[in-house]
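COURSE: Structural Biology Practicum
ASSIGNMENT: Worksheet 4, Part C
STUDENT ID: 0417
INSTRUCTIONS: Below are two proteins. For each, the amino acid sequence is given first, followed by its structure token string. Answer the questions at the end about the second protein only.

PROTEIN I
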Amino acid sequence: GGLEMLFSNLRKHSISLPKRDENGNVSNAAFLVRYLCNHLMKDRRKELFVVDDTVRPGILVLINDADWELEGEGEYVLQKGDSILFVSTLHGG
């Protein structure tokens, strides 16, 4: 497996996020990463997914099939129906 080993060996999750993060800001991709770590990640080794409060190097993040770097990375404001994909580029993905 890849990243799914950190998330109960499930490859796909459908989740509903609050419209606002814990600080009252509009939910963005950075909030999604925190939410995943705090609510869906069962593995204690969070450093395999995040480093310095962002997705670690070696993990490609796609927002609606576009590299999140083109969408503003963590600042991207999430929209209803967005598809966010995390792909490990280490060990073949």
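PROTEIN II
(use this one for the questions)
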Amino acid sequence: MGKQQYGQILQEFQGKILPRWHPHSMMVHSVLNRLIPASGLEGQQWEVHVIDDKEQMNAFVIPGGKVFVFSGLMPICDGEDGLATVLGHEIAHNVAHHAAENYSRLSLVLPIAYLVSFIYDVSGNLTFTLLDYAYNKPGSRKQESEADYIGLMMMAQSSFDPEAAVELWQRMEKVNQVAIPQFLSTHPSNHNRIAKIQEWLPQARILAEQSKDEYGTLF
């Protein structure tokens, strides 16, 4: 499944992937090389692809260690610490096996949706929408919060500044002038996300302090 998805993504963005020597690509490689040892996923075949699309502020990591970053994300990251926040979060989804959880959740939801639609003779779209809001989205938000926590600890252990995570999401909050209500989103609102990260910062600072021995002076 991962190989097929990887091939489809490469095909979709063919001609838009920046070369390895491009500054954006070099920065992603540099940050990733520090994060991977803290992830426990060193055995995967990691590959980095930066997509030249200044309109997209996004990044994702598919199972197997394939990393995709859109160039539009780089300015808002504002350096390696901000980029480590994003990549740590995306790698954390793989650490926590969220893709497998989503597949399992889907296998449970589909039969229920078909049964409800059949018994009550309602629109299949309506049934799937209600189940999505009642079941899938809360589960996805839980995964997002888990990835925030794991990613924060990972970046701190890799000697990145954990305070940068708060700063990144504050910048994101300014960019997203019209925020989607949290109950309609698979992601926590930026405000809620920032509050949780601030709660976790004392623990992250301890990890960052301990990482000095490996990486030298911090920040």
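ANSWER KEY EXCERPT:
Q1: The chain is about 65% helix and 5% strand.
Q2: The longest strand covers residues 47-51.
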